[in-house]
Every structure is written in C-alpha cells, then in structure tokens.
Amino acid sequence: MKEHFQLKVADIIKRKHFEQAMVIAGNEGIQRNVKWVHVVEVTSIRNLLNGNELILSTGVAWKDNMKLFVSMVKEFIENNAAGLCLELGTYLSDVPDEVIEMANVHQFPIIIFQKEVPFVEITQDIHSVIINQQYQKISDLENYSQSLNKRLLTIETYEDILQFIFSALDVQIIFRPKSKEYEFVPEISIHEQDSIIQQLEEAKTQAYDHIASTPIFLFGQEYAELFIYSKDIPISEFELLILDRTATALAQHLLRDLYVEEKKRVEEFEWLQGWLEGEHSLEDIHEYLTENGIKAKTNDAVVLITKQIPIKDKASQDGTYMKLLLRSVFEQNGFAVFFVEKRNDMTFILLNNRTKKNLKERIKKAIESIQDSEFIRKQSAGKFMIAAGKLIHSISDVHKSYQTAKETLRIQQKMTYKQIYYFYEDLHLYRLISQMSKHTDLQELASEYLQPVIQYDQKYNGKLLGTLKTYLECNGSKQETSNKLFIVRQTLYHRLQKLENLLGEDFMEHEKRVAIEFMLLVHDYLSSAQPNSVNQAK
C-alpha cells in the first residue's frame, strides 16, 4: 500500500514533550494509529471512546485502588484505545506488575512521564498534527477525484479505472461483475487468486480489516462489486474513501458503456429489420457488409426463422446460448450470419460465403449438427423449429426470402406431423392450401369429401381416417398398409369396405383420389390444434 501518513504512537513518542518519556509495556503495539487525544481523570469513560484515542492521565482517579487501576486499563484495551500515557510522581509512583503484564499480552502501549508534563500543550501539538493530516487527506482525495473524472473522458474500458486505483493505492484490486468471474489488477497467480477469493468469502461473515468492498449499482440493481485487499497493512479510512469514489466513477463508465452498447444494438436491429423489409438499396447493403468486414463470394442468401416452443410450467431458457450455437454452426458451414431477435423468435440472414452454391444441402447439414449438439439434447426448456424462406440469388431480395420464411413458419405451425425444419420450396400443396385459405372456406370444402368418415370415427371410435391416409400414402398397397398400421389383412379389408360405403366405390380412381388426398392435407392444416382427430393410426 502506498504510504499515506497516519499518526502512530511511534511517531508521537518522538515529539518534543515525549523526550523523557519511556514505553514500559506493550512496546509491540507502538504502530497503532492515533486519531485523537483524551485526558482522562475519571473512573468511567467507556461511552466516550470511539477507538484509536491516546489516553493522557495522572492516575488521580485510581491512585489508591489497584483493582480500579487494572479495570480502567482493561476498559481502555476493550475500547481499542491507542495507548496510555501516565504521569508519575504527582499521584502515582509506579505501575503495578499486573497492569504491565496485561498491556504486554494485548500489545497495549503504556508510556510514563517521570516528571510533570503540560497535557494541554501535548494535546494541542498532537491535535494540530491530526487536523493537518485530515486536511491533507481531503486534499489528496479531491486531487484523486479530479484526476479520475478527467480520465473518464478518455478512458475506453473499465480496466483502465481499475489500473488507476491500483496506481493510487498500490494494493490488490479485485472486480467482479454480477454472476461472473473475479478480475484481478494486477494479475496474480491462480494460487494467489484462490487464496484471496477464500478470504473475500470469509469477510462476508466476519470483520476483516485487510479487505474492503463496495457494491456498484446500475438502475437500482447491484451490477458488480469492487474490492481492495491489503496483505500486510489494515485498510484506512482514506483507502475506503478512494474506493467509494472509484466505485462511483466505475458506475458512470459502465452506465455509459451500456447506453452506447444498447444504442448500437437498437441501431443494428433497426438496420437489419429494414433489410428484411426491403428498405435498403443494393449499394447500402454492400456498404453495410463492408463496414462489418464481410465480402461474400456469391450473392446467394436465405432467411431462416427459428422459433422456440417453451414447455408449460417451465421457465424459458436464455436464448444467448442458442444464438451462439446457431451462429457458430452456420458459420462453419460457409455462411455469414446476421440475426434479429423478437421474443421467442430469431431471424437469421444467411449469406453464402463459399463459391459453391449448395445452400440447401449445407443448411440441412448445419441443422442436423444443431439437432445432435449436446446443448439441444440436454436443454429442457422447450423445443424449437426452423423455417427456411425462398433461396434467393441477390442480397437485395432478402425481403422476399423473409416473407416466404414467415409463410413457412405459419404453415409449419399448422402441420400435424411436424419436423424440426421446413424449406419454403418443399411445402408444395401446403403453400397452395395456405393461399386458398385466405379466399375460400376450406373447412366446408374438406367436409364434402371427408365428413362421412370423420362422423363415423367420432360415432364408433373408429380409425377409418387414419387408415384412409395410410392406404393412399402406400399407393393402394394392402400389404404395405396393413404392415404400417400393424393390423391383419382381414381388419384392413373390413375398414376398406367401410370406406367404400362412405366415400363411394370410385374413391381410388385418379381424379377423386387426388381430390381426397388434397382434402386430407387441408384437414390436417385446419385441425392442427386437434391432432387427435387426425392421428388415428389403428
């Protein structure tokens, strides 16, 4: 710790009025700090002591009472007095052995004057030193604060502030943002760090005068904590004041950083959102990419929307890890990645960063890697789906891919048999259904073909609709259908006969069959909220 003058008992016994004084006990305690001087000639002073006072006395109050003398010295020690100066000759002739022994045990200095001394002059002398010392501390503190405030105008990182307080105090500085690791200035070995961290933890429950800390609040919440640690010398009030001023400066700097970061994030969000909405020219987009150090090797791009589906009664998971995972995997598969986050949805703009144009294959490979990642396998806050928009060949058409990605997500959420990802170009009939649903009452249209079967299943708890769907998927193969449904041929024949009765004997003829297959897709699309009405396999 850089030496900042503190008046000690050892300093006082070198002053003018102590030339003939002797330390007769507690010599090991002469490095105690002295904050004030009291003249004590009464038998009770406990409520008048605050600690670090040097006591001057003639002993008149206990001159004929050995027990009272011992009791008074014990009271001084318990109240953390700096030492006791006794004038011998007037009322006391000596100091009892019991008092000397107690003072030695507690390293409590006892100083004797062997002739009469002017207590008034002593107190004036020492108090003038203490007052001057306080003025010097105030001056030094003000100089530190002004220098720090000037530095705040040019300081770029909070590490510079930590270095500044270290330069001023020359003690170990420790900084810990909430829920993060401890940072040490200067850097020390891991072993030393562990030792100090253990002491920091112990200091939470017990007094430790070699450690001081102060919380740093932002927006009324504790954001970080700043510590100073002195291995050899107890921390003084001056160091505590420096610590407090530094914490205030750190709070201002961190708040400024958060503001700048948030403003940058908002500007980034607004720009990317404008790109998704088709608001930027090709020239603006190229300029933005150049500013971000991206030089795409092709103009191919695609927009992906990922949606997290939280599980009921479980807290939603921090999306930061998901973003890091997605960004890392897509970059490894040759894409430059930009993303915009809204609630549980994250929109990714993927720019092809390879000469090969096999975007779809690489996206599939990336998604499969994500599915197989340890994070996804272990995460319990919910599932997620990915909707890929139209593959485009100009970065100025990103808005087209975005619109189709939103359409893909809407369709995907209504599909009965959901997989983790879909491409817009693979939805085929579902895209047609989605468009038709905006202009036509598809429910009524589907009912014309499927209502008899649905009503039969509802009335008899049958499984005809599932059987019909599987039979059509198997292209009318009875053996394959029975195998898929895990039923015997006779059961299948019985169900097919029921279907003929309900749909007509011609339900497998080409045009009617195509219409029924289409209406099954429509039914799935419209009844996605009630999957049990469709997913009847047996």
TrEMBL record:
It comes from the Bacteria. Pfam families: HTH_30, PucR. Residues 464-521 form the PucR C-terminal helix-turn-helix domain. This is PucR family transcriptional regulator. Gene3D superfamilies: PucR C-terminal helix-turn-helix domain. It comes from Neobacillus bataviensis LMG 21833. Residues 11-130 form the Purine catabolism PurC-like domain.
